[in-house]
Amino acid sequence: MQKTEHLLESVSKIMSHLVLFCIFREQLRLKEQCVLEDSPQILEKLNGGTLLVGGLDISYSKNDSSLAFVGVSVVRIGDPASETQCETLAVDCNRITVEVPYVPNFLAFREVPAYLAAVRAFEARHASLAPDVLMVDSNGTLHPLRFGAACHLGVLLNRPTFGVAKNLPLLESAPNCFPLDADGPTQKHLLLQALLTSASSNPVFVSPGHLITLQTAVEITLRCSIYRIPEPTRKADLRTREELAKFVDTKQFDDGL
Q1: What is the CA radius of gyration of the chain?
Q2: What distance in Å separates the CA atoms of residue 55 and residue 42, rounded to the nearest whole number?
Q3: How far is it, in rounded angstroms, from Cα 97 to Cα 67?
Q4: Hey, which residues does 74 pair with through a beta bridge?
Q5: For strand 161-165 and strand 133-136, is the pairing parallel, antiparallel, or unpaired?
Q6: Which of these, 137, 144, 187, 162, lies nearest to 28 by C-alpha position?
Q7: What is the model's pLDDT at position 205?
Q8: 84-88, 212-216, 217-221: lowest mean pLDDT where?
Q9: Cα separation of 251 and 246, whole Å?
Q10: Predicted TM-score of the model (pTM)
Q11: Do strands 51-60 and 133-136 pair parallel, antiparallel, or not at all (unpaired)?
Q12: For residue 75, with 0-12 CB atoms within 10 Å meaning exposed, 13-18 middle and 19 or more buried, which class applies?
């Protein structure tokens, strides 16, 4: 019996390693398709008209790691001189079941499927509000493989994406402008920029995902910001938290009946 248990444990470990290896290979395959250059359409709309910026965020239940809500918002930014430079047009939210566990460096495989479904559902309901670029509450090139969830999502959707993260582990303090490059000071593509978007002393961390440069991602972030967290991801985050709280309260009430 003990020998059988050891054998099953060994098989389980081997299978886990095989799964991680396959995921790693897929991540490398997708990374080869990642483009860190600005889409011409983005530059045209950013400089000469209005740009629709989508925001994506996921809120998880503290008591059930498989329960979460994914939010999608769309914000329109226009002329910097306009009083209505940043206007929220729509916010959607859906409850999801998360079946993939969290594995460090492979967050994309846990969250990107939910983002993909949320974006497609949003665009089916709001065809005229399809975002030109997606801002993800996650990282883009700020990742051990330079290919975080924002990059992963952008490649699969084949549209511009970038990440805006609230935290940067291992960085004890950050100035207003703190760019990190990929391989040294002469590297063409910067990984991220720590950015103060408001009077807050805490920065957010912007990194390009796909079909966009860091410079353009930073410009869009600043033009979308009223508070510390830029409006696209802030609105999505607020909605997911609201819906999660309502769902948990309702479930607790039902369970008590």
Answers
A1: 20
A2: 16
A3: 5
A4: 54, 90
A5: parallel
A6: 144
A7: 95
A8: 84-88
A9: 9
A10: 0.86
A11: parallel
A12: buried
Type of residue numbered 38 = D
Structure token digits, residue 14: 């081997």
The two tokens of residue 20 are 């991680």
Extract the tokens encoding 256.
């008590």
The 3 state secondary structure assigned to the chain is CHHHHHHHHHHHHHHHHHHHHHHHHHHHHHHCCCCCCCCHHHHHHHHHCCEEEEEEEEEECCCCCCEEEEEEEEEEECCCCCCCCEEEEEEEEEEEECCCCCCCCCCHHHHHHHHHHHHHHHHHHCHHHCCCEEEECCCCCCCCCCCCHHHHHHHHHCCCEEEEECCCCCCCCCCCCCCEECCCCCCCCEEEEEECCCCCCCCEEEEEEECCCHHHHHHHHHHCCCCCCCHHHHHHHHHHHHHHHHHHHHHHHHHHC
> Per-residue pLDDT tens for 44-101?
999 888 899 999 999 999 989 899 999 999 999 986 656 567 899 999 999 999 999 8
Structure tokens at 172: 């004890």
